[in-house]
Amino acid sequence: MSDLTISLPDETVAKLAERLDRSRSTMLTEAIEDFVAREDFHFLDIKARLAEADRGSFASGKELAAVIGKYTKATRPS
User: Fold this and answer.
1) Residues 46 and 40 sit within 8 Å (Cβ to Cβ)
2) Is 13 in a helix, a strand, or coil?
3) Is residue 31 within a helix (H) or strand (E), and if so which, with residue range?
4) CA–CA distance from 34 to each of 8, 20, 38, 47, 50 (Å)?
5) CA–CA dist 63, 56 (Å, integer)
6) How far apart are CA 21 and CA 74, in angstroms?
7) Do residues 23 and 34 make contact, with C-beta atoms less than 8 angstroms apart?
8) Residue 30 pLDDT level (bands cut at 50, 70, 90)
9) pTM for the complete prediction?
10) What SS3 class is residue 54?
11) What is the band of 20 on the pLDDT scale with cuts at 50, 70, 90?
12) Which of 38-42, 56-60, 74-78 has the highest mean pLDDT?
């Protein structure tokens, strides 16, 4: 594990830490861990979707119409 120094407004950090009943250090550590995990998830998800696109893994027009039809009302001509 490594140390990191950042500058944040003391008042903002102190208020939230107090509301969460956590130390400033714990709160900021959790916030950074959550951010890194979320960004990593999104990166890997996008990478997987791009690989699907490169393989040509797309739904056909007929398959797409079936899914859309499943969740929308059929419209009748007036």
Assistant:
1) no
2) helix
3) helix 24-55
4) 18, 15, 6, 20, 24
5) 15
6) 53
7) no
8) very high
9) 0.64
10) helix
11) very high
12) 38-42
At 76 the pLDDT is: 60
CA distance 4 to 18: 22
pLDDT higher than 80, residue 74: no
Largest CA distance in the chain: 69
Give the chain's length: 78
Spans of all domains in the chain: 10-71
- Only one residue has tokens 């393989």, namely 55
Encoded amino acid at 63, one letter: E
Q: Report whether pLDDT(78) > 60.
A: no
Distance CA 78, CA 13 (A): 60
The answer to whether the beta carbons of residues 24 and 13 sit under 8 Å apart is yes
- Angle (CA) 29 30 32, round 5°: 65
